[in-house]
Write a structure and sequence with these properties.
The protein is elongated. It contains 17 helices and twelve strands. α1 crosses α6 and α5 packs parallel to α7. The two termini are 24 Å apart. The chain is an alpha/beta fold. The strands form three sheets. A seven-stranded mixed sheet has the order 6-5-4-1-2-3-12, with helices on both faces.
Length: 408
């Protein structure tokens, strides 16, 4: 964990992926992120994947490095405590990260009455306040009709398993929160910053030209299976049965691929027959993939994967070998020898490679990854340090069931 955000305190009242991932990124850069949950855990506390004992790998993965307090938010006292935490004084306080509804006890109006310059970074489903999850956003954007093999009917969708919009929204929320903090430091103004999943999805799609594309051509893009759209890239099978994704985006990558496969002459013949050049324009390679893919496939299938990969590396080629998630978890470059990971024991009592920040800061020590807290682990210390409550008051709140204790 890095310390470049030391001194920044963020109160996080959230669940699922987008909002907790924003808090995770901030914590990994040194912010004090205090996650507030209901007593017994929020709706994501027991989400899959889980251990045989029922501990959620999901929850402990998204909450590494945070502090945990549990509160009965069904009571007026509990609601007031969460409000007080969010609005605690100090230039580095008064920041709330949440995906709670925009109306209610964590509304901007309610919190601004307690602290005028409160900053709220609010992850939402829809901009109108309605619910949405990654899968519902993705299907509305049309991506499942571009995903999958070309042989599928046009009206049969294929979902992918990565919650892309959640993760993108989490990163967007983290930098929006830091921008809001900088703005407040300059102007003294707080505010509510809303990040709807639907807007994250549709703007990303538009930013990549995909909205303009379908409007321009007055129709949808067809499926391309494992082939890259608009450039050269496809999966190929080697002589030893390995599958590789081979790409050639730049002129150098294209030249290197032709050299390794020894097909320069054959490609020149295709260029001459079709009156085109593949040397510089990736789009032209895509347009003539019907001729290029079979040619390259005929050579890749004769090569052993290790030998071909080494040859491509020598010329600056771009490739990736298909492997399972289990194989990826054992991969030396990705995980086992990657300095981002630390082999540590987590709250589930399982020891496994645990990542810190994906960021590398030159000349700064990365440090060991932090684990997630046990639920309610810091309840007492948070109330004492942030709200300056004395030990007797905290003990009374716990005995009354307003605040939960650690589940250690």
């Amino acid at each position: 964990m890095y310390g470049i955000l030391n001194g920044l305190r963020v109160i996080e009242a959230s669940s699922f992926v987008a909002s907790p991932s924003a808090g995770l990124y901030l914590a990994q850069l040194g912010a004090e992120v205090i996650r507030v949950d209901t007593i017994g855990g929020g709706p994501d506390y027991n989400r899959w994947p889980k251990s045989d004992e029922g501990a959620s790998f999901y929850w402990e993965g998204l909450n590494k490095g945070k502090k945990s307090i549990t509160v009965d938010i069904g009571t007026d006292e509990g609601k007031a405590l969460v409000q007080d935490l969010a609005c605690a004084p100090g230039k580095n306080g008064g920041i709330l990260l949440t995906n709670f509804p925009q109306n209610g006890f964590l509304s901007h109006k309610a919190l601004a009455e307690k602290r005028k310059d409160i900053i709220i970074a609010r992850v939402m489903g829809q901009a109108n306040g309605g619910p949405a999850l990654d899968y519902t956003v993705n299907c509305a954007l049309g991506y499942p009709f571009m995903t999958g093999p070309q042989s599928l009917p046009d009206d049969e969708p294929v979902n992918h398993v990565l919650p892309a919009w959640d993760l993108l929204a989490g990163a967007y929320t983290a930098f929006s929160l830091l921008a809001a903090d900088k703005h407040r430091a300059t102007t003294g103004e707080g505010g509510e910053y809303k990040i709807p999943l639907t807007d994250i999805g549709v703007t990303a799609m538009a930013n990549m030209g995909q909205l303009a594309e379908v409007l321009f051509q007055d129709g949808n893009r067809s499926r391309h299976g494992n082939a890259l759209y608009g450039a050269f890239g496809k999966d190929f099978k080697t002589a030893d049965g390995k599958r590789m994704m081979i790409m050639a985006i730049t002129p150098r990558q294209w030249r290197g691929l032709l050299s390794v496969l020894e097909i320069e002459k054959q490609v020149v013949e295709v260029e001459s027959a079709r009156g085109v050049s593949f040397a510089k324009d990736e789009g032209v390679r895509y347009e003539h993939s019907d001729a290029l893919y079979p040619l390259i496939e005929s050579r890749v299938c004769l090569r052993q994967a290790d030998e071909l990969q080494a040859a491509l590396d020598a010329v600056g080629g771009c490739w990736g070998q298909y492997q399972t998630v289990y194989e990826a978890a054992k991969d030396e470059d990705l995980v086992t020898n990657n300095p981002i990971f630390s082999e540590i024991k987590n709250p589930s009592n399982y020891t496994y490679p645990t990542p810190g920040s994906a960021l590398t800061i030159a000349n700064q020590s990365r440090g060991t990854a932090n684990v997630a807290p046990h639920l309610g682990q810091h309840s007492a210390s948070i109330l004492q340090s942030v709200l300056d409550l004395d030990a007797d008051t905290v003990a009374n709140l716990i005995s009354q069931g307003v605040v939960g204790e650690s589940n250690l």
